[in-house]
Amino acid sequence: MPYADNDGIRIHYQVEGEGPPLVLQHGFSESVVDWYEAGYVNALRSDYRLILIDARGHGASDKPHDPDAYELERRVADVVAVLDGLAIEKAVFWGYSMGGRIGFGTAKYARQRIRALVIGGQHPYPRSMEPLRQIIRRGLAEGGEAFVAAMEEMFGPETAQRTERLRAADLEAYLALAQDRPGLEEILPSMDLPCCLYVGEADPIYPEVTACSQYRPRVTCFSLPGLNHCEAYARSELVLPRVTKFLKSLKHS
């Protein structure tokens, strides 16, 4: 099982396929496994060298319980450590939800390592994470089943595989990472790299995602009618045609 080391924190990653390097960074409570289960890996592996990364606190990566360990710059450095370990100078970065937050962070802290960005279900504006902390605290107080129930109340029904993984999650690590998010909107005017933003129209953050796209040069933005936050990830058959069109256009950008 391959790992990169970032200042003593081990970051697990997997590589699939051949072609231009494409980093895939999952959302909160997920792991590299979710990209497989949602169909992204099978759809992309024939055209891209996929670098799937378990964010710290998730999957097979280390799970520190110190909130300082989850500062955005450290999470971006995890991505850079993986790229360094694979001797990749530049890659396209695709992140969803929390992974999209890390994507905006790469534009601020590691611009020279990113060729283009695909960001789904995320915006760069300040955001309170108190609702998420309440869910995690409920799990810590009442156990894994209560955590699963609270997640389903907020995000909708989970698959059997996801439910099993949620029961086994390190909730202390989740609580450490669920810090309020400072705004990154100051980087928007200078984000000159190609960028694809997308969001479900039933996602509560839909207005912010569409708003930030208006301040970005070289941006492609699309929405998914009727889909909420989780559905806009799970419905890969709706997402992939739009994103792969963007990715193919990079050859001529």
Number of helices: 11
Decide which structural class fits the backbone: alpha/beta
Taking the alpha carbons of the first and last residues, their distance comes to: 35 Å
How do the strands of the widest beta sheet line up side by side?
A: 1-2-4-3-5-6-7-8
Biggest sheet descriptor: 8 strands, mixed
- Topology as a string of helices (H) and strands (E): EEEHHEHEHEHHHHEHEHH
Helicity range of the residues? 40-55%
Poorly predicted residue ranges: none
- Provide the gyration radius in Å: 17 Å
What is the molecular shape? globular
Q: What is the number of E strands?
A: 8
Mean pLDDT: 96
Query: Strand content of the residues, in percent?
Result: 15-25%
Summary keywords:
single chain, alpha/beta, 41% helix, 19% strand, globular
How would you concisely characterize the structure shown here?
This protein has 253 residues and is α/β, with parallel strands linked by helices. The protein has helices spanning 32-37, 40-44, 72-85, 98-109, 130-142, 144-155, 160-167, 171-177, 206-213, 231-234, 236-249; strands at residues 3-6, 9-16, 21-25, 49-53, 91-96, 114-120, 195-200, 219-224. α5 (130-142) runs antiparallel to α8.
